[in-house]
Amino acid sequence: MNWDQVYQSAKSWTLEAGDILRKATKESFQVEYKTSAADLVTEKDRQIEKFFIDRIKETYPSHFLLGEEGMASDQVFDYNNEVVWVVDPIDGTTNFVQQQKNFAISVGVYEKGQPKIGIVYDPIAGELFHAQVGQGAYLNEHLLPKQKERTLEEAMISINQLWLIRNERVNHLLFEQIIRQARGTRYIGSAALEIAYVACGRLDTYFDFRLSPWDIAGGMVILSEVGGVTVDLENKTVNAFTPTVTIFSNPNVLDEIVTFLS
Ligand code: IPD
Ligand code: CA
Ligand code: CA
């Protein structure tokens, strides 16, 4: 497999798809509820996923696509044995609909379950985060530095408010001391952007407990290239295909955080 070529394809298709979404923010489009008013899908989500399916089928016919909208549901594959493009056509659909900003296209390419390429693109900010395994991570053409020495006191934490109130997934009281000690909290509402922001140091730790492979597959490659880590509440490494309770973090900040989680 010529991974340099796949990397170029992934970047140029994502930029092209970003153009479609940027234009779409100025047009009207169909919005549907998936399960509730907080869980939306638009015709643009489907259009972008289809855009990737068509290009992958044409250029890399042996590759598969795992996408949030299930547009390639006729495919049967085992991610442990194939090359799989894990695509979230719009990560942050609520923001796309309500804010027309703070959303991203997320693309991760994995071979036999192993990360190869990660792309997270914010088409409104014009920020393309991208990485090929072993070659560092970039924001547009700038190489991102490795994760900085940082303490929890200096850290910016991202967490959805749902995890700070009583919920069915985690003990919300675990986060009290972490939040109290941290410099601040910021929540964007796009997991892919949140992870990319940890990678570039705008955030230091992002907690989320209801994620799917397409939310994180692209960002995880970018984060690991700068020395960031993805673990569960027991500090065990998380695999992009089986995410549940997940922490994306600067490793120094994580060292302090785990002391509050045990
Ligand atoms: C969602 C966003 C959100 C995260 C959710 C995801 P979507 O993705 O990334 O920030 O908290 O768990 O499902 O539905 O906008 O693609
Ligand atoms: Ca998503
Ligand atoms: Ca989505």
Q: How would you sum up this structure, described in words?
A:
By secondary structure, this protein is of the alpha+beta class. Helices cover 32% and strands 26% of the residues. The chain has 7 helices and 14 strands. Strands 3-4-5-6-7-8-9 form a 7-stranded mixed sheet, with helices on both faces. Strand 10, helix 4 and strand 11 form a beta-alpha-beta unit. Helix 1 runs antiparallel to helix 2 and helix 5 runs parallel beside helix 6. The longest helix has 22 residues, at 3-24. It is globular. The N and C termini lie far apart (43 Å). Bound molecules: D-MYO-inositol-1-phosphate (IPD) and calcium ion (2 copies).
What are the SSEs and their pairings?
Blueprint: H1 3-24, E1 31-36, E2 39-42, H2 43-59, E3 64-67, E4 83-91, H3 93-98, E5 104-111, E6 114-122, E7 127-132, E8 137-139, E9 142-143, E10 156-159, H4 176-181, E11 184-185, H5 191-200, E12 205-208, H6 213-225, E13 229-231, E14 246-249, H7 251-261
